[in-house]
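Example 9 (inverse folding). The structure is encoded as follows.
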C-alpha cells in the first residue's frame, strides 16, 4: 500500500480531451494497493487514509503511465546491417526484398534458431525495454512462415508472459510475406493460414490478434479479407500493416474489418483517414522505420485533426527498425511527424493500450487501473522528449512492483 510522492509533474493521460491533453498535475502524489491505483492528485490533497502508507520517492521528477510498445517483431534470429548500408547506397527496401533479402532473409535465420535461443534473445530485449519505462509489449510472430516456427514463436511469447514481469500481447503475423516455398502456390499458403494455423492458434490461446501485411510484395486486399474472415470466426481481432510503401487501400480495409489498429500508414489517403476515424481504428505510427527507410512520415497532424487516435510504437525488427528504444520513437514522432510531446506520450500510453485492447486496464494513471508507471528524470514531458538521452528512466513499475533488471 505505497504512496509515491515528491512528483514534480504527473502526466495522467486520461481518456478525456484531445490527444495533446495528458492532464498534468504539479507537485503530485499517487497511491496504489493490490497492484492497482487507488488515488492520484495533488500531494497537498492526499487523503488522510493514505498518510501512514509507506512512501516511495518520486525524486522531484516526471511520472508517466507505463509505456506501451504496440508494434514489435520481438522474436527473430539474425540481423541485417548490410542491408542498412545497401539502402544508404541507393537500393530500395523493395529491391532488396525482391533479391531475396528483407523479411525472407530473417525468416531463414529464425527457422534455424532453437526455441531456447529465441526465448533468451526475446527475454534480453524485454529487459532492455523495461529499463526504458516500457511495461507492455505487443509481440508479433511472422518470421517463421511455416507451421512449426510460427507456433514456436508464439509459444515463446506465452512462456515469456508467464515468466517475466512485462505484459505481453501476442499477434499472429503468418501473413507477413509469402515464404519462398509457396511463391508459386499462394492460395495453398493462404489456406495453411486460414484452415490450419489460425484455428490451432486460437484453440491454444497463443494470440489475441491476427495481422496481415497488405502491400505489393506481401498480400493483396482480397487475400487479407480471406485471412481476416477466418480470424474473426476463431475470435482473433484484426491488425494491419497498411499503406507503408504505397497507398494500397490498407486503411480502408482496416475500417471494413473493424481492426484494432492500422500500422505504418505513411502513404494513407485522405479517404483512408476518414475511414479510420469513422470506424474508430487506432493509427499506429512507427517513426523509427520512417527514419531508417528515408520514407515520408506518417501524416500525424492530418490524422489527429481528423479525430483519429495516433499511437506511437517502435516496429522493432532486424531490418527497417532495428531499435526497441520507445523514447527515441517518441522524440522522432515529434521531429518527423510534428506531434507535440504530449501527443506523443499519449500515443505511447493510452492510445497504444487501446491499439492492443488493454485500455481498460492500463495506459493511464487513475483509480482502478493497473499500477504500471515509470519515473523519468525530467521536469516535464516536453523537456524529456526534447532533451534526448540514452535513458532518462530511473524506475519502472508493473502492478505496483518495481521491475528488477537483473539478468
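The amino acid assigned to each position is listed next.
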Amino acid at each position: 500500500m505505497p504512496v509515491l510522492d515528491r512528483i514534480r509533474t504527473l502526466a495522467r493521460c486520461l481518456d478525456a480531451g484531445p490527444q495533446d491533453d495528458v492532464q498534468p498535475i504539479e507537485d503530485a502524489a499517487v497511491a496504489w494497493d493490490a497492484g492497482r491505483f487507488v488515488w492520484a492528485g495533488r500531494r497537498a490533497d492526499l487523503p488522510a487514509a493514505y498518510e501512514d502508507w509507506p512512501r516511495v520517492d518520486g525524486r522531484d521528477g516526471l511520472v508517466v503511465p507505463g509505456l506501451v510498445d504496440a508494434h514489435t517483431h520481438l522474436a527473430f534470429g539474425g540481423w541485417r546491417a548490410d542491408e542498412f548500408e545497401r539502402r544508404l547506397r541507393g537500393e530500395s527496401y523493395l529491391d532488396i526484398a525482391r533479391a531475396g533479402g528483407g523479411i525472407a532473409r530473417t525468416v531463414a535465420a529464425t527457422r534455424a534458431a532453437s526455441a531456447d535461443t529465441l526465448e533468451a534473445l526475446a527475454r534480453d530485449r524485454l529487459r532492455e525495454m523495461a529499463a526504458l519505462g516500457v511495461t507492455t509489449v505487443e509481440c508479433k510472430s511472422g518470421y517463421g512462415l511455416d507451421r512449426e516456427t510460427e507456433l514456436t514463436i508464439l509459444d515463446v511469447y506465452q512462456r515469456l508472459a508467464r515468466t517475466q514481469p512485462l505484459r505481453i500481447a501476442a499477434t499472429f503475423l503468418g501473413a507477413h510475406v509469402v515464404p519462398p516455398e509457396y511463391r508459386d502456390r499462394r492460395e495453398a499458403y493462404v489456406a495453411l493460414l486460414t484452415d490450419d494455423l489460425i484455428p490451432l492458434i486460437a484453440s491454444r490461446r497463443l494470440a489475441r490478434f491476427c495481422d496481415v501485411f497488405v502491400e505489393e510484395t506481401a498480400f493483396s486486399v482480397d487475400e487479407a479479407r480471406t485471412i481476416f474472415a477466418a480470424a474473426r470466426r476463431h475470435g482473433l481481432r484484426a491488425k494491419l500493416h497498411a499503406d507503408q510503401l504505397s497507398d494500397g487501400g490498407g486503411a480502408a480495409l482496416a475500417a471494413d474489418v473493424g481492426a484494432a489498429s492500422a500500422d505504418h500508414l505513411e502513404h494513407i489517403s485522405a479517404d483512408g483517414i476518414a475511414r479510420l476515424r469513422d470506424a474508430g481504428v487506432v493509427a499506429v505510427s512507427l517513426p523509427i522505420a520512417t527514419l531508417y527507410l528515408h520514407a515520408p512520415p506518417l501524416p500525424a497532424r492530418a490524422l489527429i485533426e481528423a479525430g483519429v487516435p495516433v499511437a506511437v510504437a517502435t516496429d522493432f525488427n532486424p531490418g527497417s527498425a532495428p531499435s526497441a528504444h520507445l523514447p527515441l520513437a517518441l522524440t522522432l514522432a515529434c521531429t518527423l511527424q510534428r506531434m507535440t510531446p504530449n501527443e506523443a506520450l499519449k500515443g505511447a500510453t493510452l492510445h497504444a493500450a487501446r491499439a492492443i485492447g488493454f485500455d481498460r486496464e492500463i495506459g493511464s494513471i487513475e483509480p482502478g487501473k493497473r499500477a504500471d508507471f515509470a519515473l523519468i528524470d525530467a521536469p516535464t514531458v516536453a523537456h524529456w522528449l526534447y532533451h534526448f538521452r540514452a535513458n532518462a528512466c530511473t524506475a519502472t513499475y508493473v502492478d505496483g512492483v518495481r521491475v528488477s533488471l537483473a539478468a
